Amino acid sequence: MLDEYPDMVQLVVRPFPSSYNQSSLLAASAVLAAHDQGYFWEFREQLFLVEGPLSVTDLRDMAEQVGIDGPRFFRDLASDKIQG
User: Fold this and answer.
1) How many CB atoms lie within 10 A of CB 41?
2) pTM of the predicted structure, to 2 decimals
3) Among 43, 50, 41, CA closest to 69
4) Is-contact 70 39, C-beta < 8 A?
5) Which of 27, 45, 69, 80 could tie 84 with a disulfide, CB 3.0–4.6 Å?
6) 7 alpha carbon, distance to own chain's centre
7) What residues in the chain have per-residue pLDDT under 70?
8) Mind spelling out the 3-state secondary structure of the chain?
């Protein structure tokens, strides 16, 4: 459908974190920060490879692996735009 009607159909993907899981909240925020640099899908794929609780070290490693500007990523992650 996207291919047939590119001007009429839009795919929207939004993270809906669980309020019971801190890793879920962190992952949702991180993927939005990655999106600000154009790496939503690449970062999302990396998130699914993490087993167990998500750490700041995991985020740094994933950002580096997909080519995200690390300092900007962490600034965006802490911003009111994402945390607000």
Assistant:
1) 13
2) 0.81
3) 43
4) no
5) 80
6) 26
7) none
8) CCCCCCCCCCCCCCCCCCCCCHHHHHHHHHHHHHHCCCCHHHHHHHHCCCCCCCCHHHHHHHHHHHCCCHHHHHHHHHCHHHHC
C-alpha dist (Å) from residue 58 to 10, 29, 46, 53: 31, 14, 10, 9
Main-chain dihedrals φ then ψ at residue 7, nearest 5 degrees: -90, -10
The confidence score (pLDDT) of residue 72 equals: 96
Instruction: Give CA–CA dist 26/29, Å, rounded.
Output: 5
